[in-house]
Amino acid sequence: MNIVIVESPAKAKTVNKYLGSGYRVLASYGHVRDLPSKNGSVLPDKDFEMHWDVEPKAAKRLDEIAKAVKGATKLILATDPDREGEAISWHVYQILNRKKALDKVAVERVVFNAVTKEAVLDAMRHPREIDGPLVNAYLARRALDYLVGFTLSPVLWRKLPGARSAGRVQSVALRLVCDRELEIEQFKAQEYWSLAAELATAKNETFLARLTAVDGKKLEKFDIADEVTAMRLKAALEGGRFVVQTVESKSQRRHPAPPFTTSTLQQEASRKLGFSPRHTMQLAQRLYEGVDMGGESEGLITYMRTDGVQIAPEAIAAARRTVEQLYGRNYVPASPRQYETKAKNAQEAHEAIRPTDFGKPPEKVARYLDDESLKLYKLVWQRTLASQASSAEIERTTAEIGLTGNDGVAYGLRATGSVIRFDGFLKLYEEGTDDVIGEDGALPILAQGDQLKGRKIEAKQHFTEPPPRYSEASLIKKMEELGIGRPSTYASTLNILRDREYVRLDKKRLHPEDKGRLVTAFLENFFRRYVEYDFTADLEEKLDLISAGQLAWKDVLRDFWRDFIAAVHDIGDLRIAEVLDALNDMLGPHIFPGTEAGGDPRACPSCETGRLSLKNGKFGAFIGCSNYPDCRFTRQLADGGDKTGALGSEGKLLGTDPKTELDVTLRTGRFGPYVQLGENGEEKPKRASIPKGFDPEGIDLTRALSLLSLPREIGAHPETGKPITAGFGRFGPYVQNDGKYASLSGADEVFTVGINRAVSLLAEKAANRIRRGTTVIKDLGEHPELKGAVQVLSGRYGPYVKHGKINATLPKDRNPEEVTMADAVELIAARAAKGPAKKPARKASKAKKTKKEKEVVEETAH
User: Fold this and answer.
1) Any idea which residues carry the catalytic annotation?
2) pLDDT, tens digit, for every residue of 233-245?
3) Count of domains in the chain?
4) Whole-prediction pTM value?
């Protein structure tokens, strides 16, 4: 018997079908051991000796693998064809060797880029040994990430309370987001104007022409700087005789984009499908590992962690044949297209992401895929075919038009248009979300000397705009351009930034939280070299040289550690006050913005004699007065002083409550903005938090009084006779009756929901409740392989899937409403493999420390 090891149960099931009865395929469930979450796992003083611990959940699986291997003819390590896959194979080999399970057992390493019968069988015919340099590159990366995390994070905890941790790649990605925010804050809009004329030919065909020259001088962007100039020019053009001076047409060829890499797949799935990078990779993983095609399981795409754009010659030939069959011979170029990787520090050479079989178009496999998987497969299918299709041919026409204005000055206008003469690859795929080639469309037929009528002259005001905040897709693109991180790390790096609350995702754009900006400012002040883009990219390049066998991995570690630990020691004696002073200066424009009235932005608005400064408290950094405790003015960093009227101990006066004649103020506390009725005294005044989704700056007296009046009584329940109320709770807006709650769809509904809607919501909630604290979110139906129904439930600890007695928690990033049967089956199988949960002994103080240390290791592992 030959034992084959892969990472996942889905991949194991598919591969096992291809190999037959002489093979047994087992899953490692990913990495089986890691550096333990404590100091001393990597020892620089002992030549970077590394101590590994087997993951508790992996121990049982490794025992099963060891038992299966004993007496086997051969052990075949068939994990993924990249650095992480090589590391998993190495770890499994090391553990089995220690267990003495490999006596007289031959060990082979095989890799396949696609989970298809042909690819798997071909890999089995070409085994090799574990790639030592590739493993060394993994060890170096893992050691670097651990050393940065467990050396730098404690410095953060001591010097910057409230900070969570720092990571080698994550900190640089965070700096990109923070630097972009600083650009936006420092940006000053500049006004400019443009003029366009709607012109008509003798046949009354209309088109637009833009003013480009005045008195023979070309107009630059900011030459029309104000309304007075724009209106003067508009008056000069009105009623003039427009004449076509020249017409020029040029043919241009537009070439297709290469097939997908990990980065470009994540970017396009975000732009076209609205998928997060992590969700894209989850879907791609399933398409790669194998899809049940009516009893026959097969991988539909090649390996999805790659930065290579080349594809195999046989795949190129198959793509060209498919394009010709679907669209005709003229849609296939004379020779195959060859692409070269342009990404900085491209990783090990893998194929681009492509379909494994061009004989399986999206419509043919649609019934075997859920909607999201089908959309992603279709994206890969279309992009790959387009990459081998003919170029598009576009004709661009430019007409130069002149006139003498009412003021006797010569003016020049330009009209442009474009026409697609041959669509080529555009018939299959257009990169991005815009499928428009020419913004002005086609021009009418024009000839030199044609007289044109001026229908309308329009002057438009414009302002320059700041650079846009990064989306997840554009941040990944920037990281790839700079050579920061690797295909397997992009999605996890972004998740870490959100999980640590260093950034937030709002309308698909990344906004740095103040906690993130403080961490970045701290690192730039005291560890600047280690958040430099070039330094991180150069380190990635060294890791790639290690994987190529051109550098010794411990030499790289020694060079890094010597300077890094010296920098850590240099700030060991720094007092927190010195750190805060440095951050006050660096973040001054953000945390102490100037006021419209001018004056010192750091002057305390409460006592007027104190100076505002960063302070540290139990919940992290905030702004406080230097005259504390005599002056207790405080505010959060994000309030930025006068954005809401210098909110703090005094707040912003909204008006007076007509019933109590007490002042209503808008304030900010440690937990965010709130409204308050009356002043602080012996009795605590009534307060109401500003719900999430409400703009504090938009809160007026009417809205404030509505918030202060909550919970709002809607009416009596027709069955219980007890009142139904509406309000805001820990989990958002709700209606409540006799201790039973139901969620409302939005914050505004708290103030408008009527009795009928409230009764209906409470009834629906009661119907879905199956036990205290648990509700049914979604019924998925009967398990495809086992007896019993599969449900998505909401419980005390969050959403999970249930089959019989097995409960599997949903990952945080998964929307329970979008879970499919395939998702649920995979989660249930993984949970079943872990065995029954065991409750560890409670050790409060140690557990608390371990949790924080664990965050560092989990984070820096990426």
Assistant:
1) 303
2) 999 999 888 999 9
3) 6
4) 0.69
